[in-house]
Amino acid sequence: MTQPLLAIEDLTVGFHTPHGSVLANKHLTLTVAAGETLGIVGESGSGKSVLCRAILRLLPSPPAEITAKSLAFAGRDLLKLKPAEMRKIRGQDIAMVFQNPMTSLNPVWPIGDQVSEGLRIHRGLGRAAARQVAIDILKRVGIPSAALRVDDYPYQWSGGMMQRAVIAMAMTGQPKLLLADEPTTALDVTIQDQILSLLMELQRETGMAIILVSHDMSVVSETCDRVAVMYAGSIVELGVAADILSAPLHPYTWSLLRSIPHLDAPTGRLATIGGQPPDLARLEPGCPFAPRCPVASAECRALPIALKTLPGDRATACHFPERVAQLDQRAAS
Amino acid sequence: MQIFRYIVARCLHAVPVLLGVTIVVFLSIHLVPGDPIRIMMHGRIADSEVAKIYHDLGMDRPILLQYVVFLKNALVGDLGMSLIQKAPVAVLVVEKLWPTLMLLAFSTALSILIAVPLSLLAAFRRNTWLDTAIRLGSIFGFAMPSYWIGLLLMLFFGLLLGWLPISGLGDTPLDQLRHLFMPSLTIAFFLAPILLQSLRSAMLDVLTSEHIEVARAKGLSEWRILIKHVLRNAMIPVITVLAVNISWLLSGAVVVEYVFGLPGLGSLLVRSVGYRDYPLIQGLAFVFGVLVVIVNLLADLSYMLIDRRVLRS
């Protein structure tokens, strides 16, 4: 097997707070192959965004503390790099697109200037050359008459256009890995679709890998090769997207999928997951999902849980994955 | 085009404010308790003479008419005659305007030169001993009264080291700068801490914005982020602080001008108040008012250079 592009082994991210230490990511192990799309889904607060920021080492320390057996990108352990070496990776080898395009751009500088800034810093491009690159790449992400609009300020653009600009900014370094942290959440539905298509197109052209963070199962099902489901800072299920979506092996994944409303289904109350996500500062010893799980038993609350590998390149953090099938039967009857 | 419209709009906004200034200045002499003429003459004057002076000065006419005459005269630069110096107020004021404007410009420039690097350093090393030292030092400078700092500077640079002249205003421009250095530094002791503190907190505020994280994800260094993506955004609130304080300094510089014997508007104001030279006081108040309006107009125009969003409205 060839070496994966990104290999995370036993990554834990803790935050020191006045109320004690909170683990936002717990013992995460996952890999991303070159050119593949990994979806990360989960509720708010499940640690998806923290994971992206930990990979790029964007979390301020203190309060954050990152530990891992290894956080290897193209064979280099990112956690062992000096700050200056890490800066050379950011925006070049690994780029990131953020959730809210309206606040992702600095309001007092022209857009083109911000798009090409990385090139001026990392590759020493001159002002005129950088401006031309900005025009080309803005054209590529679908900004009409980019040559005229390159000197516009962010307030003159719509949210969808700004997200295109942010994507253009991320693409200037021709990254091998793009971290997309809910890139469509702040946009309306028609624009969401355009932005996702754009990302997929760019991926086909450049062969970059994408980690797509989302809480939207339909987004993930359309775009991702593999999926990691996160809950309370841990990966609870990992596998090929089609497998997970058709036959989940964790009650949490099952509940998430069930809560997607279907157009042809009879209208009524939408399916929900009862209860609240757990307080990360006060976790019980057992499975963190047990209090909300429809098939939990006494062992679930008592026995510590870890991600276990199953046949068919799958993994789940459930003591009794076979019970998920019962859920389907119960729902059908 | 938008820029042109913004400039015109800002200038037009200044007009009603200027009118307000004239009304307040005009009324001030009518609000002085007692009879200004009698006070001026220390009461040693006959009633008939008082009435004659009133008539000569046009002060027995309806108040609205008096205001219109005042406004008409003010528009052509006629602010009346000084009672003591027997010269046109406008001439006296213009004579002393230059040193005061130079002092303000010099001290503002000095304050910016001191405050910007120090606040950058404080923001870069936020919550470390260096940050604390810079902030404590600035409070120390701010807390000392101007006349005290002025005297200390005179003693040290002027008398002990003999580097700088301790009073007066030189003749050649270079000599004037030498004379203005210590008074400007005295004012900077007051102004720079205000700028430093507000710039630092504005920068820390900008540092929490999401676009800063985006800039970090681009691989920019912390210094570049501070200078390119934080400083400019942080200037926006600080310009307001600067404009308010320069306006305040116009009259606040009185003490400094007096201590350093600078022939500026401040010294003129102190003297004219001492002599109860009402037309001169009125003229000075008018000029101060106009200068404040101009400073604020300049602040409005500089927003445009920093943040294009102001053009939207």
From TrEMBL, chain A:
Subcellular location(s) per record: Cell inner membrane
Does the record bear Nucleotide-binding in its keywords?
Answer: yes
Where would I find the ABC transporter domain in this sequence?
A: 6-257
| Keyword terms, alphabetized | ATP-binding, Cell membrane, Membrane, Nucleotide-binding, Transport
Molecular function per GO: ATP binding
CDD domains this protein is in? ABC_NikE_OppD_transporters (cd03257)
Q: How does it sit in the membrane?
A: Peripheral membrane protein
What top-level branch of life does the organism fall under? Bacteria
What the entry lists under Pfam families is as follows: ABC_tran, oligo_HPY
Q: Which family does it belong to?
A: Belongs to the ABC transporter superfamily.
Which PANTHER family does the UniProt record give?
A: DIPEPTIDE TRANSPORT ATP-BINDING PROTEIN DPPD, OLIGOPEPTIDE TRANSPORT ATP-BINDING PROTEIN APPD
- Protein's UniProt name: ABC transporter ATP-binding protein
From TrEMBL, chain B:
Q: Which Pfam families match?
A: BPD_transp_1 (PF00528), BPD_transp_1_N (PF19300)
Q: List residues traversing the bilayer.
A: 12-32, 101-124, 136-160, 180-199, 234-260, 280-306
Biological classification of the source: Bacteria, Pseudomonadati, Pseudomonadota, Alphaproteobacteria, Rhodospirillales
Keyword Transmembrane present in the record's keywords: the answer is yes
Where is this protein found?
Answer: Cell membrane
Can the keyword Transmembrane be found in this entry's annotation?
yes
Q: What protein family is recorded? A: Belongs to the binding-protein-dependent transport system permease family.
The topology of this chain with respect to the membrane is: Multi-pass membrane protein
Source organism of this protein record: Dongia sedimenti
**Protein name as annotated:** ABC transporter permease
